[in-house]
């Protein structure tokens, strides 16, 4: 898991487990803070020296060496498991200085900016929850330990202004949702601390008026006028003057808006649920999983939150000691999955373990559907591994679902079966058949999210088979369903598919192809799918280069994520380090059993051909032969290295075999 950074308060860092990282002395923290202010851009060493010793007429003679020492210590703290003499991936050297390549979600200030920017007008309940969460990230003034440093001043001011704006946006949302009384205390404190913000006075007066306190609302407006006139010599702006007149006239538009009918129903229903269902009731756990299932398909923060809370719900069910409740809580999370690399391997393993314990503990007379849902969960969450249990669980779940003639259960089981069809190359036709059954089943029974899944599965499999006319139809169908049913994550896959199509039917050497991939990668930022996002853009660009016969990029600081072992031999070859490339190739593991199985074997084949590694060539030829009629990697729906047959031909020639 990635390192997280906090600047909304004292500068801090936490490791993947959430534990604080020791940052040593103030100069080390200052270097880290200065790089965070730069927002992934390079800060020259000379600039770091000038900023760190700005309080002195001249920096010390060994200032440059000191900066390098600080950076080395930070690298050890931030990447403690990095092998010696391997390039840093987080705090990197680039050109004349250093850059901190923190992920967009890794810095609290960057997440805060996105949360505020995503607030609609008028703000809704989702916006209110998002703002509440974002404001909770503040632990004190931004860059609190560098309040006197010139280099931090502009960023501190900008973030402070953004926080004040977020407080006011939260109040707007509360007023829009009929929560005027809730808004009053925070707004009262807000205007006391920031008396020159006219919009804060306006919101406070409006909140008071909507709670039936007309006199207090007018008194607030008079207090605002007094402060502005006496201390700034300025009359209140038109918004405050208009509000005062409207309050005196009891203007109808000041009354709480009725709100969107759906929002009213939601508020009334959740309030009734809270009143009716006891706080410790087991039904709440099952209801929670239903909400998490809906939350997961909203994408971004919703998907991330659903993953986090899902395991907590499973743990809570286990602690109650009710095995059948635990089975329902685990099995109810039937969120369709299209990508064969899990987003959180540790959580996936924990979920599989919980499902297996629950299967073992179910009484003999337990409903078969509950057993099948647990088996489908095992199949889904063990995807990409080499365990024999995943395929076995998938077969058992599908068999039970067909015997029970349960459409929703069968769709869930087919998703598990799909995820277990990456154990060898050349299985695109089998996956295409699964996608076709999912579409037919879901269309008959109104299973919208599984209908979308079926179209995405067929988009991938038709791409592997170079049938882009068919793939286009499934992309269009998925997009239509996505728009109609508010499923934003679908667009991530269909946009990447269209870039794949552009490269597969055009010129992979063109700058247009590389630019299109870079633009598509922006859709992954904040999508909540690290298992898909991590390392994907560099891999896609490398595939373009390999397909078009170009050398690998020479940039040593690209984040290849889990694909680094397969990129490394080609990167070494690009630096003319043939012996090291051969050693890296000999140490290469077999690719994981996922969407990129054929693509990674083709990368290994290309490197093996370059260094004359006969063993790897033999192995690659054997593994790729079943996919001779497919496009390498196109079964991902994201990228390709061109026809597999081309790599097989080259391998056959090098091995002295008939083509």
The CATH H-level homologous superfamily of the largest domain: Winged helix-like DNA-binding domain superfamily/Winged helix DNA-binding domain
By DSSP, the count of extended strands is 5
Largest sheet: 3 strands, antiparallel
Structural class: mainly alpha
Strand percentage: under 5%
> What's the average pLDDT?
91
At CATH level 3, the topology of the largest domain is: Arc Repressor Mutant, subunit A
CATH class annotation of the largest domain: Mainly Alpha
Poorly predicted sequence stretches spanning 5 or more consecutive residues: none
Number of helices: 30
| Cα end-to-end separation | 45 Å
Note the overall shape.
globular
Number of domains: 4
Give helix % range: 55-70%
Under the CATH scheme, the architecture of the largest domain is Orthogonal Bundle
Spatial strand arrangement across the major sheet: 3-5-4
Cα Rg: 29 Å
Present the secondary structure layout.
Layout: E1 4-6, E2 12-14, H1 26-37, E3 43-44, H2 45-52, H3 63-78, E4 91-94, E5 97-100, H4 108-117, H5 125-135, H6 150-176, H7 180-193, H8 198-210, H9 214-232, H10 238-248, H11 261-276, H12 283-296, H13 300-320, H14 323-331, H15 345-361, H16 368-381, H17 389-404, H18 407-419, H19 428-445, H20 448-464, H21 468-485, H22 490-505, H23 511-522, H24 530-533, H25 536-547, H26 564-574, H27 578-586, H28 597-611, H29 614-624, H30 644-655
Antiparallel strand pairs: 1-2, 3-5, 4-5
Helix pairs in contact: 1-3, 4-5, 5-6, 6-7, 6-8, 7-8, 8-9, 8-10, 9-10, 12-13, 13-14, 13-15, 14-15, 14-16, 15-16, 16-17, 16-18, 17-18, 18-19, 19-20, 20-21, 20-22, 21-22, 22-23, 23-25, 26-27, 26-28, 27-28, 28-29, 28-30, 29-30
